[in-house]
Amino acid sequence: MLHFELVTPEKLVRSEAVHMVVVPGTEGDFGVLEGHAPVMSTIRDGALSVYRTPDSAPETITIEGGFAEVSARGLTVLAERVA
Amino acid sequence: MASLKALKIRIGSVKSTQKITKAMKMVAAAKLRRAQEAAVAGRPYAERLEQVMASLASKVSVSESSPKLLAGTGRDQVHLLIIATSERGLAGAFNSNIVRAARRKAEELEAAGKTVKFYVAGKKGRVIRRFFPTQIAADHEMSHIKTVSFTDARAIADDVIARFEAGEFDVAHLFYAKFQSALVQTPVGNQIIPVAIDTNAAPVSDGGAAVEYEPDEETILADLLPRNVAIQVFRALLENAASEQGSRMTAMDNATRNAGDMIKRLSIQYNRARQAAITTELVEIISGAEAL
Fold first, then answer.
1. For residue A19, what are the domain limits?
2. Scanning every residue of chain A, which has its alpha carbon at the shortest distance from the alpha carbon of B39?
3. Distance from CA of A59 to the nearest CA of B (A)
4. pTM (2 decimals)?
5. Residue B28: inside a domain
6. Is B110 inside a domain boundary?
7. Do A41 and B214 touch (CB under 8 A)?
């Protein structure tokens, strides 16, 4: 499972284990699974798709002003605003 | 000695003042808890952003072409002092401490031949006008804000950055009160522009693998720099909110205690006066009876 964290300046919105997250990067969407290579990317305003299990329907979270970081610890998304 | 009636009125008035200060103290205590929670909730974002900035900064060399927010304008002449205070008074020395810290810095800078401008955020910072009447660059209206949100901080940061880009100043300092405990709040002044990156912050561990950057380090850094200014302003506002309530709580606790002491003193005075009046009356009756 992938450790996924969504943080805004006001609070830690999410911190959970998920299957996959599709991130709307500035240079194109990318899906992050467990064991993804380390990446730092800016994000365009849009929706994150969170897949809890391989076959569940995605949950979308709209974010603004974001930045994503994939490291050995998992995926961390810093967003200015979460709708 | 004051008459019995006057004393009684006085005691009544001090008692009602005490009720108000007591209520204010309790309100401040409740608000303080909330403000502290908000400050704690904001920590993860700031920590992560700092880590990311640190690991980016270690990869990017500062040069002429670096973003101005990082490299500065190359000059050190005009300083902007941002004074973040509260909207309300009756919070002990909270506001005056912040203003005093800013004033000291301004005097120091002026003595060194620099130009100083002020950016006032919060109504109580306006007293700086008394000392530097012609140097207020802006007065940011905050009276409609009940609890600070990131959007409010962003508005201040955007305004300040726009002024920076327009060349209005070279260096910006932010003054606020750091919350240490309900009893202790220290006024501090931090430089926020050019962005001072804390290279001591532990960089993100990349597990030995090379980190891929999208688009590239410089672009990400340029994107994150204004955000870093906004987050610093936001953290200052949060700290200020907690400090304000802490300071008010302490001030109102003192006021309640002082009112209690005053009531005690006035009651003794009142009882003495009453007894004296009774004694005089008795003496009059007795001497009257003896005279017969």
1. 2-82
2. A10
3. 23
4. 0.84
5. no
6. yes
7. yes
